[in-house]
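Fold this sequence, please.
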Amino acid sequence: MKTLNIKKLAVVLSLLVTGIISFAFINQERITVKGSDTMVILAQKWAEVYMKKNPTASIQVTGGGSGVGISALINGSTDICNASRKMKQSEIDKLKDRYNTLGVEVPCAKDGITIYLHPGNKVKELTLKQLSDIFAGRIKNWKDLGGANADIRLYGRENSSGTYVFFKDNVVKADYAPNCQTLPGTAAVVNAVKKDVNGIGYGGAAYSTGIEICKVKKDTNSPAYEANATTIKNNQYPITRYLYMYLRNRPTGAMKAYIDWILSPEGQGLVTEMGYFPVR
């Protein structure tokens, strides 16, 4: 008789535990985030810290590029899209056609697209026009820029990247040179330039550790600036941009709480900690 009661008790306890786990899973505040590789280390940090403070929250962050994130937002497979560029009108139109909404744009950080050089390169600063000529293939040798007599080797992002689009639209203003090697992530661009004394690449400021940073001038008569907290805040660095979160609709509930926290002093403090720049 006692054995039977123990067995019943074990079954009851097992059902209770299963029920508690199921209830907890159902009541998790699940949020999916996808998109910009430039933003991924920041988004992962936000999620990590927020989940420690809010045990019921479950935030999944993946990269893939701004274009991939925007596509996921349109097809409904992510709650938040991270993008290092603005949505295109054609993408907004698709969102409107599917959900009858123009979406919600949330600027959440600032970034300075940084020009990476090998430490052995004698060139230390470039104008926007020179960067355009380099990445469009009009300037092909470092000697034309005061450097060594050597071919310039170009490294950039793949075309699903918001950084690729922003740099093309705002700096190159032409098609990239055919010999520009496209790499799947900013870290890969940095690593390529580290190994190539004649290489040049571009990407987010947060990835610039351990690489030579090229100062950038608006034109030949302007001072040269490096991307840092002061030059970004004062709008002095010529290749400054906002980083965005895009949503299908105005956030409510758990989503609103998370975004409000990202924009709070604590969330923006992590922006600085991770090598980006606060939105205000």
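The chain has two domains: 28-110+242-273, 114-238. The CA atoms of residues 120 and 197 lie 6 Å apart.
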